């Protein structure tokens, strides 16, 4: 079982690096956890340019001059949780909806026509309305038409993840939101999400179920980002050791304006975010790194080639929002509202190939005709 | 001229299609490399779609199309991909890759052998990507692989022929062509592999991510040719002792 050190100990570790330790980490092939802590420290900030260069070189070597593009489909805005920061929080009064199968299919096919081949299916945590049966049916309807289907939904049991894998789901993202146990308590005011440890163990259950890929992340703005970065490194390293067959990714959701007017408790600047991305890239050269449309176009363009390997595009965070422009009920406002064509063009201008297909649904099914377990 | 499964190749450099900045750069680099066999990840292409980014620029008359099963975690997945590729017009040539660890992408020897044996029986011309294990190379040859593709070092690492000792044994024993694959990061690395007697090399990352992929492709092609000529010409033996240029040096006391 993965256990996370107490947050103050992580904060202490990322605060005390010496110049020599930072220089050593910068020049190391594998900086390790001590190196990661040094690269996340305030003392590493003057080295941001060198970190960017190194991160870019590693990314280019491991992933080539390519960036994978995808789009989210929001399935539902119902949520049983009371999270202080989230637009979908049960406390917020808003019109809620869950897409019917036909509506979800229609939303997906709009994205298909726009050129997307990788989809991320997202929902609030409402197992009674968006449970495993629902997700399984959506996967079965879409899996032959898309190269890869990921989900970002409520934590599930191992056997439920296995069932969704058999139905065609390729990867699962479960963000811890914050690895700071005390802060976690303060912002998760009610609902099943208040169980810190069950959420922390979710990536292990995903991997144990045989899922191809598991995504982790911290919601930046809740607690000390430097310590969150070290926690992510610890989690990555632990998952790599326990589940060597599973691909790993990290997302960096920075808090965006949302209904409820929650303000970031500890704001994270673009420089901070960049330092975190570069440090994690140097720590784990093979981890897939997402940079979503939460960030502004200017920043996303600038980061092309420096670390992130996956970009969302043309995103709408309201269920039904692709087919119906005034759908309302979005989870948060996006920072980059450009279309797939526009984002692809920006990627190409930087000398990178926007890859729309880098997986295939047939991987999910065994050669003897039996579905993978 | 190199012959694999009855097909002749003038170039001993095989190319890849991943990691390029655009399909157009890929096309130009492949042309500059002079290669005649090109591997394509089945996970990346849509065989049924002529407008697919890679298929659109890849001239199937010019290059032998070598689909690879990159991403497959076990024999069953690789076999399923291979069959689907053939059914979609991908042909019978197959670079078999079974890499259960997404981080190192090192090949699984047991699953690779299993899949090779079955796919050969189904009529595929299988070129298995393998660790540089001489016994495994023989086993793969025994079950009908048309070539073996031992790694020089892990994929994408540009570390060169770290497995030199084992590859020398593989070359000395093999009855099928030996194509050194993976980790070849510089023209000097491929020259080394070719001087050792490798029949061919496969290079992707080092060309795709070069500052100028087209010129780098040319550099690799020249190095492959230089290494091959050196091998065929017979390299001098390596010795730790100095060899006097005049055989009579030091023998002046003789009458």
Automatic annotation (TrEMBL), chain A:
<keyword id="KW-0411">Iron-sulfur</keyword>
<keyword id="KW-0949">S-adenosyl-L-methionine</keyword>
<feature type="domain" description="Radical SAM core">
    <location>
        <begin position="65"/>
        <end position="300"/>
    </location>
</feature>
<dbReference type="GO" id="GO:0005506">
    <property type="term" value="F:iron ion binding"/>
</dbReference>
<dbReference type="InterPro" id="IPR010722">
    <property type="entry name" value="BATS_dom"/>
</dbReference>
<dbReference type="GO" id="GO:0003824">
    <property type="term" value="F:catalytic activity"/>
</dbReference>
<dbReference type="InterPro" id="IPR013785">
    <property type="entry name" value="Aldolase_TIM"/>
</dbReference>
<dbReference type="InterPro" id="IPR012726">
    <property type="entry name" value="ThiH"/>
</dbReference>
<keyword id="KW-0004">4Fe-4S</keyword>
<keyword id="KW-0408">Iron</keyword>
<dbReference type="Pfam" id="PF06968">
    <property type="entry name" value="BATS"/>
</dbReference>
<protein>
    <submittedName>
        <fullName>2-iminoacetate synthase ThiH</fullName>
    </submittedName>
</protein>
<dbReference type="GO" id="GO:0051539">
    <property type="term" value="F:4 iron, 4 sulfur cluster binding"/>
</dbReference>
<dbReference type="InterPro" id="IPR007197">
    <property type="entry name" value="rSAM"/>
</dbReference>
<dbReference type="Pfam" id="PF04055">
    <property type="entry name" value="Radical_SAM"/>
</dbReference>
<dbReference type="InterPro" id="IPR058240">
    <property type="entry name" value="rSAM_sf"/>
</dbReference>
<dbReference type="InterPro" id="IPR034428">
    <property type="entry name" value="ThiH/NoCL/HydG-like"/>
</dbReference>
<keyword id="KW-0479">Metal-binding</keyword>
<dbReference type="GO" id="GO:0009228">
    <property type="term" value="P:thiamine biosynthetic process"/>
</dbReference>
From TrEMBL, chain B:
<dbReference type="GO" id="GO:0009229">
    <property type="term" value="P:thiamine diphosphate biosynthetic process"/>
</dbReference>
<feature type="binding site">
    <location>
        <begin position="204"/>
        <end position="205"/>
    </location>
    <ligand>
        <name>1-deoxy-D-xylulose 5-phosphate</name>
    </ligand>
</feature>
<dbReference type="InterPro" id="IPR033983">
    <property type="entry name" value="Thiazole_synthase_ThiG"/>
</dbReference>
<feature type="binding site">
    <location>
        <begin position="182"/>
        <end position="183"/>
    </location>
    <ligand>
        <name>1-deoxy-D-xylulose 5-phosphate</name>
    </ligand>
</feature>
<comment type="pathway">
    <text>Cofactor biosynthesis; thiamine diphosphate biosynthesis.</text>
</comment>
<comment type="subunit">
    <text>Homotetramer. Forms heterodimers with either ThiH or ThiS.</text>
</comment>
<comment type="function">
    <text>Catalyzes the rearrangement of 1-deoxy-D-xylulose 5-phosphate (DXP) to produce the thiazole phosphate moiety of thiamine. Sulfur is provided by the thiocarboxylate moiety of the carrier protein ThiS. In vitro, sulfur can be provided by H(2)S.</text>
</comment>
<protein>
    <recommendedName>
        <fullName>Thiazole synthase</fullName>
        <ecNumber>2.8.1.10</ecNumber>
    </recommendedName>
</protein>
<dbReference type="InterPro" id="IPR008867">
    <property type="entry name" value="ThiG"/>
</dbReference>
<keyword id="KW-0704">Schiff base</keyword>
<keyword id="KW-0784">Thiamine biosynthesis</keyword>
<keyword id="KW-0963">Cytoplasm</keyword>
<dbReference type="InterPro" id="IPR013785">
    <property type="entry name" value="Aldolase_TIM"/>
</dbReference>
<feature type="active site" description="Schiff-base intermediate with DXP">
    <location>
        <position position="95"/>
    </location>
</feature>
<comment type="similarity">
    <text>Belongs to the ThiG family.</text>
</comment>
<feature type="binding site">
    <location>
        <position position="156"/>
    </location>
    <ligand>
        <name>1-deoxy-D-xylulose 5-phosphate</name>
    </ligand>
</feature>
<dbReference type="GO" id="GO:1990107">
    <property type="term" value="F:thiazole synthase activity"/>
</dbReference>
<feature type="domain" description="Thiazole synthase ThiG">
    <location>
        <begin position="3"/>
        <end position="247"/>
    </location>
</feature>
<dbReference type="GO" id="GO:0005737">
    <property type="term" value="C:cytoplasm"/>
</dbReference>
<dbReference type="Pfam" id="PF05690">
    <property type="entry name" value="ThiG"/>
</dbReference>
<keyword id="KW-0808">Transferase</keyword>
């Amino acid at each position: 079982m993965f256990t996370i050190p107490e947050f103050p100990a992580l904060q202490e570790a990322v605060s005390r690096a010496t110049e020599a330790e930072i220089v050593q980490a910068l020049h190391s092939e594998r900086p390790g956890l001590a190196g990661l802590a040094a690269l996340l420290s305030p003392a590493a900030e003057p080295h941001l340019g060198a970190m960017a260069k190194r991160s870019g070189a590693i990314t280019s070597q491991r992933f080539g001059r390519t960036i994978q593009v995808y789009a989210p489909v929001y399935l539902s805005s119902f949520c049983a949780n009371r999270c202080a920061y989230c637009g979908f929080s049960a406390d917020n009064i808003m019109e809620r909806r869950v897409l019917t199968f036909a509506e979800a299919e229609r939303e997906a096919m709009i994205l298909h026509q726009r050129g997307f081949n990788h989809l991320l299916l997202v929902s609030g945590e409402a197992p009674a309305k968006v449970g495993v049966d629902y997700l399984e049916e959506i996967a079965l309807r879409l899996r032959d038409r898309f190269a890869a289907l990921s989900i970002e939904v409520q934590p599930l049991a191992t056997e439920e993840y296995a069932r969704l894998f058999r139905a065609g789901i390729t990867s699962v993202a479960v963000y811890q939101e914050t690895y700071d146990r005390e802060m976690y308590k303060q912002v998760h005011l009610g609902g099943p999400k208040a169980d810190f440890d069950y959420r922390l163990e979710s990536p292990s259950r995903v991997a144990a179920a045989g899922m191809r890929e598991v995504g982790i992340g911290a919601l930046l703005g809740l607690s000390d980002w430097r310590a969150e970065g070290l926690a992510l490194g610890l989690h990555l390293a632990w998952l790599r050791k326990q589940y060597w067959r599973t691909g790993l990714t990290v997302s960096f959701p920075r808090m965006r304006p949302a209904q409820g007017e929650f303000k970031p408790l500890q704001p994270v600047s673009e420089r901070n975010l960049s330092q975190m991305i570069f440090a994690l890239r140097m720590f784990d050269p093979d981890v897939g790194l997402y940079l979503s449309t939460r960030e502004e176009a200017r920043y996303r363009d600038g980061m092309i080639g420096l670390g992130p390997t996956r970009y969302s595009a043309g995103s709408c965070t309201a269920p039904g929002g692709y087919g119906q422009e005034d759908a309302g009920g979005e989870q948060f406002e996006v920072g980059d509202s450009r279309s797939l064509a526009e984002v692809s063009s920006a990627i190409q201008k930087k000398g990178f190939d926007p890859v729309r297909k880098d997986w295939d649904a047939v991987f999910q099914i065994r050669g003897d005709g039996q579905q993978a377990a | 001229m190199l012959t694999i499964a009855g097909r002749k190749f003038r170039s001993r450099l095989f190319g890849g299609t991943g990691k390029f900045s655009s399909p157009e750069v890929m096309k130009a680099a492949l042309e500059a490399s002079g290669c005649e066999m090109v591997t394509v990840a089945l996970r990346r292409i849509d065989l049924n779609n002529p407008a697919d980014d890679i298929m659109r620029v890849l001239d199937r008359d010019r290059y032998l199309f070598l689909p690879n099963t990159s991403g497959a975690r076990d024999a069953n997945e690789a076999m399923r991909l291979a069959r689907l590729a053939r059914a979609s017009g991908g042909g019978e040539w197959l670079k078999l890759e079974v890499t259960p660890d997404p981080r190192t992408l090192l090949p699984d020897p047991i699953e690779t052998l299993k899949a090779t044996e079955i796919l050969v029986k189904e009529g595929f011309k299988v070129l298995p990507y393998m660790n540089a294990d001489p016994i495994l190379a023989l086993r793969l040859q025994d079950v009908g692989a048309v070539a073996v593709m031992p790694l020089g070092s892990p994929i994408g690492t540009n570390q060169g022929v770290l497995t030199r000792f084992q590859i020398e044994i593989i070359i000395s024993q093999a009855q099928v062509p030996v194509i050194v694959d993976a980790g070849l990061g510089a023209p000097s690395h491929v020259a080394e592999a070719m001087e050792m007697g490798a029949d061919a090399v496969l290079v992707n990352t080092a060309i795709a991510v070069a500052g100028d992929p087209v010129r780098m492709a040319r550099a690799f092609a020249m190095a492959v040719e230089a290494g091959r000529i050196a091998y065929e010409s017979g390299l001098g033996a390596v010795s730790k002792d100095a060899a006097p240029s005049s055989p009579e040096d030091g023998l002046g006391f003789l009458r």
